[in-house]
Design a protein that fits this description.
Length: 392
């Protein structure tokens, strides 16, 4: 028995030495296995600095530059996203004129972007710099993974809701104008429901929808914070929180611009027939002219808002589209355990490519405040008043 035990130890030791030599040859250290996650993460969701570091802690020059470039870009995104969106939130709270139904969607997007920058991206950088190891409590790990799973769905669903609001403002201008107060309260309630729904959906793994024996977060015997969830959850989340909202948003913006075109043609016909107004009295003609002028001003204002929100929605979808598509395809291939039908190429997508697409999605959080300032005049005016310390 002693001889058998000794031989078993020698075999294990030899296998361990062989394993280390293989890893030395490829300059790869052992890393935790990450289960495919939802809209944010994929199979290779987090950039792995271990692919460029060997066991001695040194790294080749080129990969090290790539790693430092990723970290530098993400730090810049965090800085601009935090400062820009905090300014947007302060401006919104400072000026009561901004508290209209359409601007509640901007406020919701800004809050989601602040959480993304302050919690999601910040701990992402921390893990990159510490070989993916988690240095904080299990509770904070669960908070990070939960925030990871609900911030983008909040942004996508809020953008989808804003497209419906803009479609209603363009296609039903009179009803929209006469029901502004009611719409403001409805928008606020809808946004609150979106946040509650997104958080609850992100907490489903905590409520038990995870693999048997798995722990969503940090295991007691592991120094890593990871996503251990079902592939079905990942695919369902991507469909519900990216594909369907994107299609709904595109549908309403298409119909909105179609209504804008119809309204413009109708207004031209009305203006061409205005020559017959000489048969009316002067007071009636003046009143009709003033009404049409007011309608034109309101219509132009709604068109400008619609274009601004369409730009915000388009940027959000375009920046997150590459990473989300890879996530869906990799999760589907992983679920089917297949490398056919192109799955082999999809599963072999490099970590650098996935990380680049992830940074592109994160970049949207820093891009939004720039769009708000450039496209919304009242935001610019209130911001200038805040900067110059003027009061209304």
């Amino acid at each position: 028995l002693r001889v058998a035990k000794h031989l078993d130890e020698q075999v294990r030791f030899a296998l361990e030495i062989f394993k280390r030599k293989l890893m030395d040859a490829s300059n790869i250290t052992t890393t935790p296995s990450f289960t495919p996650s939802t809209l944010y993460p994929t199979l290779n969701t987090t950039f792995n600095p271990n692919t460029t570091l060997n066991e001695s802690g040194t790294s080749p020059t080129a990969p090290n530059i790539i790693f430092l470039t990723y970290v530098g870009i993400l730090v810049c995104i965090i800085t601009f996203a935090l400062l820009g969106n905090l300014v947007v939130i302060i401006v919104f709270l400072f000026d009561r004129k901004l508290r209209v139904s359409s601007n509640y969607y901007i406020f919701s997007l800004a809050v989601a972007d602040v959480i993304t920058a302050a919690l999601v991206m910040t701990f992402e950088v921390d893990q990159w710099l510490n070989n993916l190891k988690w240095r904080y409590s299990r509770v904070l790990c669960k908070a990070w993974t939960t925030a990871y799973l609900f911030t983008v769905p909040v942004s996508i669903l809020t953008t989808c809701l804003s497209s419906i609001d803009r479609w209603y403002a363009i296609s039903r201008p009179l009803q929209y104008r006469t029901n502004r107060n009611g719409l403001k309260h409805k928008a606020l309630v809808a946004i609150i429901l979106i946040w509650i729904y997104s958080i609850l959906f992100a907490l489903l793994p905590e409520f038990g929808w995870n693999p048997p024996g798995a722990s969503h977060g940090v295991k007691e015997d592991s120094p890593y914070c990871f996503f251990d969830i079902y592939i079905e959850y990942s695919i369902l989340s991507s469909v519900l929180h990216f594909i369907l909202p994107s299609l709904v948003t595109a549908f309403f913006y298409y119909n909105m611009f179609k209504a804008m075109k119809t309204h413009t043609m109708h207004r031209r016909r009305m203006s061409s027939g205005s020559d017959c107004s000489h048969a009316r009295g002067p007071s009636q003609t003046k009143r009709t002219t003033n009404q049409r002028k007011e309608q034109r001003i309101n219509f132009r204002h709604n068109v400008s808002l619609a274009k601004s929100y369409a730009l915000i929605g388009s940027l959000l979808i375009l920046t997150w589209c590459p990473h989300s598509i890879i996530s869906i395809m990799q999760n589907t291939c992983y679920y089917n355990q297949s490398r056919s039908y192109g799955c082999g190429n999809i599963m072999d997508i490099s970590d650098d490519t996935v990380t680049s697409f992830l940074l592109l999605g994160y970049f949207n959080s820093a891009l939004n405040p720039i769009v708000y300032v450039l496209r919304f005049r009242q935001f610019r005016l209130t911001l200038m008043e805040c900067v110059t310390c003027k009061k209304h």
